[in-house]
Amino acid sequence: MNEITTIGLDLAKSVFQVHGADAQGNPVVRRKLRRADVTKFFARLPPCPVGMEACGSAHHWARVIADLGHDVRLVPPAYVKPFVKRGKTDAADAEAICEAVGRPSMRFVPVKSEAQQAAAMVMKTRELLIGQRTRTTNALRAHLAELGIVAAKATKGLGELIAVVRGEDERLPASARFALSILADEIEAIDRRIEALDERITAAARVDETARRLMTIPGIGPIIAATIRARVPDPSVFRSGRHFAAWLGLTPKPHSSGGKERLGGISKMGDAALRSLLVVGATAVMRLAAQGKKAPVWLVALMGRRPFKVAAVASANKMARVVRAILIKGGVHRRPDAAMPG
User: Fold this and answer.
1) Are the C-beta atoms of 265 and 307 separated by less than 8 Å?
2) pTM (predicted TM-score)
3) CA distances from 326 to 160, 213, 233, 241 (A)
4) Which of 6, 45, 97, 181 gives the lowest tally of CB atoms within 10 Å of its CB?
């Protein structure tokens, strides 16, 4: 039997599919593995590249198989799909992974440690709670609006609506009051959970040296710094600051053909949560500048010639490049010469 030089492993909950190929790309082994047999199978093989899709449980199995001496490479699922020849089966997926992992221009996802995954879970839990709070708040506002009870946006308006639900407003029927009280209680409970998470995230960011250096960048606080630490385990995979900004979806999406270059809006690819946080941080800096606070000269000039949201995205792009530079080179952010907005 020819020697296996590359393996594609299609992950699953219980039954895994293996596709091994030799140096010429010819299939050598095709078989299914039960979950308990995965470690035994790879322990018997000589070290070789092992490709997997970067999906659920991929980082765990990458660590397990790497400990056995193999070179584990996680491939984004979107980059595997073009290599699936026909039909969607586990065997076809494993073969496509095996072929994709051997491409010289393929990009891979860095394998996260357990600590990095734990930090990411904290941030994802916070995002989940914020989404739940938004949906519950919108439901409360919509139900009360059906009865002609409306209030302003943001926290102040929400507090007024909760006071109506718990008060004795005659416009609110008793049955509706009972149901909406449950929503009000849920909103306040979620707020307490988010506050507890924020306190934990802030405390962890303040004792992390890299997070403290990131927080020297205007617009980046503990939440954004902790998110960067959790979502960017290996900044060295990005060749430049622009590549990092492109990974976040903060660069224009090209539509070029026939030698004519056309650039559209930002691509919005990559990590949506981190991209949104950077835009929020840039927006906060710009609002302070609009209130008369000192701001970098380039930002003041940008705000003067471009719409506010466009300038916010451009500022987030620049912020991302500074983040990558600090992660790679160390040091802290040095504020450039500032100017008063005119």
Assistant:
1) no
2) 0.84
3) 44, 7, 14, 10
4) 181
What is the sign of the dihedral through the CA atoms of 164, 165, 171 and 174? Answer: negative
- Per-residue model confidence as pLDDT tens digits over 261-308: 787 788 888 889 999 999 999 999 999 988 888 888 888 889 999 999
Are the C-beta atoms of residues 227 and 320 closer than 8 Å to each other? Answer: no
Residue 219's contacts (CB-CB under 8 Å, 6 or more residues apart) are: 278, 281, 282, 284, 285, 315, 319
By C-alpha distance, which of 177, 215, 182, 222 is closest to 198? 222
How many other β-carbons are positioned within 10 Å of the β-carbon of residue 292? Answer: 9
Give the Cα separation of 74 and 56 in Å (integer): 11
Residue percentage of the chain with pLDDT more than 70: 98
Distance set, CA 49 to CA 4, 20, 61, 226 (Å)? 10, 10, 14, 32
Least confident of 107-111, 122-126, 168-172: 168-172
- Side-chain-side CA neighbours of residue 110 (13 Å): 14
Helix (H) / strand (E) element for 72: namely: strand 71-75
Q: Which residues contact 181 (CB under 8 A, 6 or more apart)?
A: 165, 166
* Integer angstrom CA distances of residue 66 from 11, 51, 122, 294: 15, 11, 26, 50
The two tokens of residue 133 are 């709070």
Are the C-beta atoms of residues 20 and 42 closer than 8 Å to each other?
A: no
In 3D space, the residue among 16, 17, 14 whose CA is nearest the CA of residue 29 turns out to be 17
Cβ neighbours of residue 129 closer than 8 Å, sequence gap 6 or more: 190, 193, 194, 197
Tokens of 199: 């306190």
Q: What is the per-residue pLDDT for 234?
A: 87
C-alpha distance across the termini of the chain, in Å: 76
